Each structure stands twice: as structure tokens, then as C-alpha cells.
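Fill in residues.
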């Protein structure tokens, strides 16, 4: 992996406001040249976040868990135990200053990490995130295994990705995930794979230099 990237792993669940505050501080430090680029791996307690395009009608059970305005792009997303969140803080001015290419690279990073577990994750036109097709042998069935939501401030990124390792999938029922009603959500464990979070972290770190250098 690149020596310029600092990897942070939180062993304890991180409250969402605390994570936002820490990201704000780190992004400011990266912009000022006082800190290295960073990928922060963590889990949150159960909560829903609303991106800048969130439709209030997609919040089906607002009293179930706390709801936070995230400031990232996208719609409603669930975070909770068993889901690996990666907050990615990069200086895009050093990386081509292309936001669309950056999102594509995040997708590619996840595709390559999941491939290490034998999972074929795919992009879909018009749908954000990564999808697993044909789960359970059901023709036309596609389930979301990872969400992506980014924000860029003066060419420094924050927020990032959320990969379903072994979350309680029933918790997604309180929202329409990313505004998509016709498909479900899945996880590595639901697919019959049982990696630990540490093993998922290793896959993410191993796939990183293949995409981001």
C-alpha cells in the first residue's frame, strides 16, 4: 500500500456525530498539508443517514433508530454493527481532480476486495453501489452488498463506502435504501461466507494499491 496513506481501524463502535467531527478535522488538515491521506475503517451503532438527495417518503420508520443528515451525496442509508464503513479522505488534486473517476475507483476497490472472497459484485447503470446478481438461484434477483456516498470539499474527499459483512438486514426495513424499491440487500454472511471483520479489512487493504496506487 502507498506509504502516503494512513490506515485507521476503530475497534469500538463510533457514534456518527463523532465520526463527522473527526472527518471534518482530518479533511481540513489534509487541505492544509498538515496530515496524510487517510482511510478510516469502523462500525457505527444502528442509525440511518440522509444524503443530499434523500426523499422524506423513503424514511419508513423514523422512530426506529437515530436519523442524521450526512452532507454526502445520495439518499437514505443504514449503518450498524456488522457493516464495515470506510471513510476515505484523499486529496484529489494529487489524483487527477476527477470526481467521477474517483467514484469509479471506489467501486473497483470494493469489487476487487469482494473477489477475494469469491463474490462477483457488479455496477448497475442508474443505481449507486455494488450488486450481487441471482442470489439463491432466483432469476432477475439482485441485492445490494455495498453502498457508496461521497463528499468533496476543495478537492479533498470524505465519507466513502459501507460494505455489508454481517449486519442485521432487518434494520434496512426502516428505509428505502438509496431510494431503490425493487431490489433487496444482502451481506457476505447471507451469501454463505463468514469472514471476520479483520479478514474483510485485510482484503480492503490488499485491494487498495491495485486501484489507488
Amino acid at each position: 500500500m502507498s506509504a502516503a496513506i494512513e490506515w485507521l481501524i476503530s475497534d469500538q463502535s463510533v457514534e456518527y456525530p463523532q465520526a463527522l467531527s473527526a472527518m471534518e478535522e482530518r479533511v481540513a488538515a489534509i487541505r492544509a498539508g498538515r496530515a496524510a491521506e487517510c482511510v478510516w475503517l469502523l462500525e457505527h451503532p444502528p442509525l440511518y443517514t440522509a444524503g443530499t438527495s434523500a426523499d422524506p417518503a423513503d424514511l419508513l420508520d423514523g422512530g426506529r433508530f437515530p436519523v442524521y443528515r450526512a452532507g454526502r451525496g445520495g439518499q437514505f442509508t443504514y449503518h450498524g454493527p456488522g457493516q464495515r464503513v470506510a471513510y476515505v479522505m484523499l486529496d484529489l488534486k494529487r489524483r487527477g481532480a476527477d470526481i467521477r473517476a474517483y467514484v469509479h475507483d471506489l467501486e473497483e476497490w470494493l469489487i476487487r476486495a469482494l473477489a477475494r472472497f469469491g463474490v462477483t459484485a457488479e455496477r448497475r447503470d442508474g443505481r449507486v453501489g455494488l450488486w450481487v446478481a441471482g442470489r439463491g438461484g432466483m432469476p432477475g434477483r439482485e441485492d445490494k452488498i455495498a453502498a457508496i456516498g461521497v463528499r468533496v470539499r476543495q478537492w479533498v474527499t470524505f465519507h466513502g463506502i459501507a460494505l455489508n459483512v454481517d449486519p442485521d438486514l432487518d434494520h434496512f426495513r426502516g428505509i428505502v435504501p438509496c431510494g431503490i424499491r425493487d431490489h433487496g440487500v444482502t451481506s457476505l454472511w447471507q451469501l454463505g461466507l463468514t469472514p471476520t471483520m479483520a479478514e474483510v479489512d485485510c482484503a480492503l487493504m490488499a485491494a487498495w494499491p491495485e486501484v489507488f496506487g
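The longest helix spans residues 99-115.
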